[in-house]
Design brief:
The protein is an alpha/beta fold. It is about 45% helix and about 10% strand. Strands 1, 2, 3, 4, 5 and 6 form a six-stranded parallel beta sheet that branches. Helix 1 crosses helix 12 and helix 6 runs parallel beside helix 7. The structure holds 2-acetamido-2-deoxy-beta-D-glucopyranose (5 copies) and zinc ion.
């Protein structure tokens, strides 16, 4: 090569190399203008409760100026966020106490957020609604119930939450419910009770399929994951979980489950929390990209999504500090040779496909009657519950040995008499 050409090459490389990052970022933003991100899990509603007791009209609660959260309106705009499942989380501590009431209040605060900032948010409840929001440049806002304790073991409450707009439910948070085991049974911090789902838990999943509510397997035990992936008629999501193969934390999805994710056309929306990304207190953007690459390799590009867990965690990766940073992550995927189609899948299209399949199953099950069989009374914990209905003699999801059932019936009968 003549000397002159070498210098031209050096010059071209010098110009090209530093600009690669900027070029990828520009390309990421171009793609996200067409296909913005739909994130699987954001805990802003919990912050609104903790900071302001859900008083949205306090001047300091203004979502345009709020500056000590991962999420605010300018950051959502910068991040090209076009859809968000807002978590209507209530802690496990509320189980058998005021879980249902508090869940309703968190659903109310999301609805009021949409009403107070109509130029930014639009509350939607189906896949078409998300696409309409994309067209109008609004953030499609959906509600995800984080933890089966929110339904207090009642199919009637489950259906009511659906009617109020809940479109996914995480079957457990970090505690067992009376019908499903959570991830802490895999760390020996809690005893397994159901080894997956109880008979009533299976009914909950069937009813979610019938209703068209997405089943979320973040936070559940591996046995629960497998039980659900075996029986669900529709694909499921992990709304905010990363890959166990990269960071062996029990909140993450193990390899054999990733195979089932692929087989069921389900979705893993990768969590950005440092602890789940690197199993340590520090992480960076490329560590998160490693999880996305890994899920893609193990389960296919159609199984990848984003579930940042913003405002629900304390340690976030360098480069992904708040919701304005999604384009930087997309730029990283582009430099890792993800195709535009793969990127659009991870951003939104994979979630939209899962949601449409869930809606299709709902349609197919239109002729099926709502499940009516209640959980057995003795499977409930907590002395605050009344027993109305249980003395009618109508059956429950799990029957006791006859002797015990007779004693219980007598106790209930006596307690109603006195
Ligand atoms: C954050 O907002 C508060 C008012 O809500 C304001 O007093 C404070 O100066 C702001 N901080 C920054 C860094 O902008
Ligand atoms: C929030 O603050 C912005 C900027 O100061 C203002 O324009 C807007 O009306 C406020 N919104 C609400 C709901 O208070
Ligand atoms: C899946 O369900 C079938 C019956 O529908 C059952 O025979 C099988 O054991 C289940 N597998 C798992 C892993 O739960
Ligand atoms: C992220 O951290 C890893 C070490 O965990 C390091 O190898 C890599 O260069 C870092 N990437 C960036 C973009 O800082
Ligand atoms: C991306 O593709 C280019 C060109 O084919 C190749 O040189 C590069 O090594 C690839 N990068 C990765 C991370 O696979
Ligand atoms: Zn969570």
């Amino acid at each position: 090569m003549p000397g002159g050409s070498v210098w031209v090459l050096v010059l071209v490389l010098a110009l090209a190399l530093p600009s690669t990052g900027q070029q990828s970022l520009d390309e990421a933003k171009r793609i996200m203008n067409i296909t913005p991100v739909i994130d699987g899990h954001n805990d802003l509603p919990w912050q609104l409760l903790k900071k302001f007791n859900n008083q949205l009209r306090l001047p300091e609660a203004n979502l345009s100026v709020l500056n000590d959260t991962h999420t605010n309106i300018p950051k959502l705009r910068q991040g090209h966020v076009g859809g968000q499942f807002w978590s209507v989380y209530v802690p496990c501590e509320t189980q058998n106490k005021d879980a249902v009431r508090r869940t309703l209040e968190q659903m109310d605060v999301v609805q009021r957020m949409c009403d107070l900032y109509p130029e930014t948010f639009t509350c939607v409840t189906d896949s078409n609604g998300i696409q309409e929001a994309f067209q109008s440049g609004k953030v499609a806002s959906l509600m995800g119930v984080e933890g089966g304790h929110s339904i207090d073991s009642s199919l009637g409450v489950l259906r009511s939450l659906y009617r109020l707009g809940a479109r996914y439910m995480t079957l457990t948070h970090s505690c067992n419910t009376p019908w499903a085991d959570n991830w802490l049974v895999d760390t020996d911090d809690e005893k397994p009770v159901h080894h997956g789902l109880s008979p009533f838990g299976k009914m909950v999943v069937e009813e979610m399929n019938r209703l068209g509510m997405i089943v979320d397997l973040a936070h559940v035990s591996v046995d629960t994951m497998k039980a659900v992936l075996n029986i669900s008629k529709a694909p499921v999501i992990f709304s905010h979980s990363s890959a166990y193969g990269i960071c062996p934390h029990r909140r993450n999805v193990p390899d054999d489950v990733l195979q089932l994710v692929a087989a069921t056309r389900s979705l893993v929306m990768v969590n950005f929390y440092n602890t789940y990304v690197t199993c340590s207190n520090t992480a960076n953007l490329s560590d998160v990209a490693d999880h996305l690459d890994y899920v893609k390799k193990m389960a296919g590009a159609q199984a990848v999504g984003f579930g940042g867990d913003y405002d629900g965690v304390t340690g976030l990766p360098t480069g992904l500090e708040d919701v304005s940073k999604y384009p930087a992550l997309v730029a990283e995927l582009l430099t890792r040779n993800w195709t535009e189609q793969e990127v659009k899948g991870a951003l939104a299209e994979n979630l939209l496909r899962v949601f449409r399949e869930v809606e299709k199953v709902k349609k197919d099950l239109q002729g099926t009657a709502p499940a009516e069989i209640p959980i057995a009374f003795e499977e409930l914990e907590g002395s605050c519950r009344t027993s109305y209905g249980y003395t009618s003699g109508a059956g429950t999801a799990q029957r006791l040995p006859p002797g015990l059932a007779l004693v219980l019936a007598l106790v209930l009968l006596l307690s109603e008499l006195f």
